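Re: S-adenosylmethionine structure - here you go.
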Amino acid sequence: MLLSTIPSEEVLFHPSSGSDWNGRVFEWNHDIYRAIGPCYVDVLAKLLHEGVLRKLTEQGLLIQTEVTPLHLDGYPMVVKHRRLPFVSYAAEWSATMMKDVALLLIDLERELVPFGLSNHDVNPWNVLFDWTKPIFVDLGAIMPLETDTIWPATKRNAFWPAYDQFCQLILYPLYLMSWGHARIARSLLNDYKGVLKAEFLKLSPHAPCRHQTALPQLGRSVARRAAQMAQRFLPQTVRSVVKTRLLRERIAAPGPKPDIASRLRFLDRCRQEVESIKLEPSDRYWSDYYNAFHGGQVPPFNETPEWTVKNHNVFKILRALGPQTILDMGSNTGWYSQLAATNGNQVVAFDTDETCVDQLYYRARTNNLAVLPLVMDFRSPSPGAGPCNNWLLPATERLQCDMVLALAVVHHLVSKRYLTFGQIAQTLSMFAKRRVLVEFMPPEDQYVRDWRTREFDWYTTDNFLSSLKQHFSRLQILESYPSPRKLILCER
Ligand SMILES: C[S@@+](CC[C@H](N)C(=O)[O-])C[C@H]1O[C@@H](n2cnc3c(N)ncnc32)[C@H](O)[C@@H]1O
């Protein structure tokens, strides 16, 4: 192998990997690399030598990673990771996506246990979606079991060192979602501490014993506390009897160092617990849109006489222009997302309605479609976060696509989110690399007539077209369905 050194001035380090001694992620020549720190070389050698890396990547648990002959100043080794199509964050995932992430992290840990290894940083920012498949992407978090846990905010758990972190950032938010508190879960997922145990217990409609895997820990900590109280308040003679007894029964002492079998049993219990979490649809209103609007029928994805003029025209445009990537805003259960993916386009879709996003995720996963469904509001796309606002990138940077679809959504943005045409056109433009296909309901449309009062006098087709012209040089108008709705194709 020919060794070559990457010029330091050509690399762009990921802002959030600055303090990771094990390695730093960087971009070079449009590819994603990880510079391996001196302290991680031995762990990486073990992962390679014992075939762990190959096994994890083959099982789709860890991002595909290959050792390169490249060097970077200060780092003895450089590995290359597969680049995933889009970056999304936990606050944008539906409940089923969160559940799949929980199962991924448990399965990954299960694979590491026999090798004396553990994932010491199970935060959801270390997981990305490859369309509908979650994958762990932080190689440097995989360390020997005995390593100090990377995440300082929680206690170390003997069975799974990062278990408390798993609870706060994955399991508790998932429970909240299953109890109909998805909005609370989503807000707290924007914080690096996630959902604290005290918050979780306060929001729980059940006794804490519902959270099964916490029980062995709970039992032990109660016993330890009882022993401490006994030491403080009981007379000396009684104290020594209590102490001997508790010690004999091994409950006052810190838990015994668990062996492989008990760690695996603990993880099996975690898996059963996650699998048993029932996810109820949060809102049925929009998820029935296609059934209600298309006479009880969801149209097929191949051209048929049942298709409306809107179905035909959108399909014709996708076929003719062949955008590689499409962002479907206000996608509902994603008929157009699925149409585009079936046609070979790569699709990111978002909607405010969690049930719709979950349904699209389920269908795309079942049919193996290149669709990434997310929960997001057009009015407040996820902002950047972290120091200098660049640890987490804003949606407008991460989710930009060749073409944006905004079908049957503009009138909602005006009537329910109080957005102006100017704000709508600018947001569409920020997400579109090249083109936008937006549907407009003119004032005569029956749904618009219902809410349009004098204060919405400005809601006219001409005004909408003028706002679009501020950002796009060419507009083409096509028929939609039902009449008099229009499709407007905008190009830069
Ligand atoms: C009438 S449906 C249109 C579905 C699909 N685009 C189509 O044309 O068939 C409107 C969708 O927009 C979504 N929506 C409304 N306001 C939204 C907003 N502020 N951000 C994201 N989605 C929104 C609704 O939840 C609903 O699923």
